[in-house]
Amino acid sequence: MLLHLPVFTGVTVQTVVKKKNMPNIPSTQDLLKVGAHFGHRTERWHPKMEQYIFGSRKGVHIIDVEQTRSQLEKALTYVEELVARGGVLLFVSTKPQAQDLIEKHATECGMPYVNGRWLGGTLTNYKEIQKLAKRYISLKDKRDKGELKKYTKYEQVQFDREIEDLEERIGGITKMTKIPQVMLVLDMRIDKTAVMEARNTGVKVIALCDTNIDPSMADFQIPCNDDSIGSLMLMTRLFADAVKVGSSRAKTAQPAAQEKK
């Protein structure tokens, strides 16, 4: 099936759709501009993604971005409402091109993230992860205060290596005081261990689903290109924005709740 898609060159698209009490949803043109509609080659598809595929062009599947928009609206609204009630969203992506994006946007909205190797047991053995986090925070605090200088140079080097190792493994979740209610995963094939732990612990999964992904593993399925930097940047920013709105609502609700007492 040959599709004749509109081509956008040199156009700055700013149109978004915003419903009352809902996050901004990108327009169709916004999604096309960042390449969110490009899937994988037709021979590399997953049959369960058929419902989200608009057709194919030059041997590449084209994702139905109208469904991308509708699924985004559901997921973003869910996140905003959850955070407004004090919930936590965990950002997850260990794929190289998304690591910096995950750290940037998760940090900006004050949510935990995993962008290095997923540490087995992060959710299923959370108490042990908490112990590692406390160890990391303690060592880093002592080093910053100069309290490790009383040890030999060799011991100080060992402490530095331990801090660096813990930073890489759990640096993004040290302030995660409880198991999150939901997880955003940018590539379920790469981070399948994280997805399985989420399912085993009752943590809901929001996932970007390219045409080669089994979407049934996610509670919220967002059909889109999970390789394009532009697409990944847009998606992570949208969820960070939803968190910010939810956090703002939570702060506003606290004084109101206290006044009623």
UniProtKB/TrEMBL annotation:
<dbReference type="GO" id="GO:0022627">
    <property type="term" value="C:cytosolic small ribosomal subunit"/>
</dbReference>
<dbReference type="GO" id="GO:0003735">
    <property type="term" value="F:structural constituent of ribosome"/>
</dbReference>
<keyword id="KW-0687">Ribonucleoprotein</keyword>
<dbReference type="GO" id="GO:0006412">
    <property type="term" value="P:translation"/>
</dbReference>
<dbReference type="InterPro" id="IPR001865">
    <property type="entry name" value="Ribosomal_uS2"/>
</dbReference>
<dbReference type="InterPro" id="IPR005706">
    <property type="entry name" value="Ribosomal_uS2_bac/mit/plastid"/>
</dbReference>
<comment type="similarity">
    <text>Belongs to the universal ribosomal protein uS2 family.</text>
</comment>
<protein>
    <recommendedName>
        <fullName>Small ribosomal subunit protein uS2</fullName>
    </recommendedName>
</protein>
<dbReference type="Pfam" id="PF00318">
    <property type="entry name" value="Ribosomal_S2"/>
</dbReference>
<dbReference type="InterPro" id="IPR023591">
    <property type="entry name" value="Ribosomal_uS2_flav_dom_sf"/>
</dbReference>
<keyword id="KW-0689">Ribosomal protein</keyword>
